[in-house]
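Chapter review: from sequence to fold.
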Amino acid sequence: MFSVRRMLRWAGTLVAAVIVYVIVFAVGALKWQKFGGNPVEATQWTLAVATFCAVLAGTITAPREDWKTAALALWLLALLFPLILLIYNSLSGHFITGNLFELAGAFIGGFPAFYAARIAALKTKHARAQK
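The token string follows.
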């Protein structure tokens, strides 16, 4: 059923996920700049942690009955940008392995968040059934 409140919650879900993603990615970039290291590995793990935190933050903001859907949607949105870059660079003849690392980082970060949201949704549904 469509309602303005539900639509605003979903908009808040996207806003919360983007804010958390940017903040965690910026902290990871500052950490890499301060301590150094391999930039490819730093980007991959920073992207994984940022995706994990963004999917969880956005899922918590979504309506409780839609947690599983929200986690999947946010994870797929996080995968979309590295996938578009990978396809674009591959088709233009400038294949970069860094794009594969970015895609892998988004995949690795989103899976545990989706799994946690799925378990939380099942436990919530089970707790409601017992009442």
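Two observations follow directly from the output. Residues 4-130 form one domain. The mean pLDDT is 86.
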